Amino acid sequence: MNGTPKAVIEIDGLTKEFDIGLRGVRLRAVDHLGLSIPRGGIFGLLGPNGSGKSTTIKIILGLMQPTSGTCRVLGGSAADPDVRRRIGYLPESPDFYRFLTGWELVEFYGRMSGLSGAVLGESVERVLDRVGLVEASRRKIGTYSKGMLQRAGLAQALVHDPDLIILDEPTAGVDPIGAQMIAEIILALKASGKSVLLSSHLLAQVEGVCDRVAILDRGKVVLEGSVEELLSEKNRRMAVFEGLPVEKESALLAWLEANGAAGASIDNPRTTLDQIFIDRVGKGTAGESGDKIQEVRP
Amino acid sequence: MNRRVWFIARLTLTEAFRQRFLTVIVLLGIAMIAGARAMGTFDFGSSELKFTADLGFGAITFFGTILAVAMTAQLFFAELESRTALTLLARPVGRAEFVFGKFLGVVLALFAFAALMTLILVTLLAWRGSVLGGSGSTQAPKFSAVGLVGFVLALKLALTAAITFFFCSFSRTQLFSVVVAFLAVLICHLQYLAQDAWRETTSWLVRGVAWVFAVGLPNFQVYSLGDAAADGQVIPMATIGMVLAYTAFYVLVFQVLSWMCFARREI
Question: A90 to chain B: which residues are within 8 Å by CB?
Answer without folding.
Answer: 87
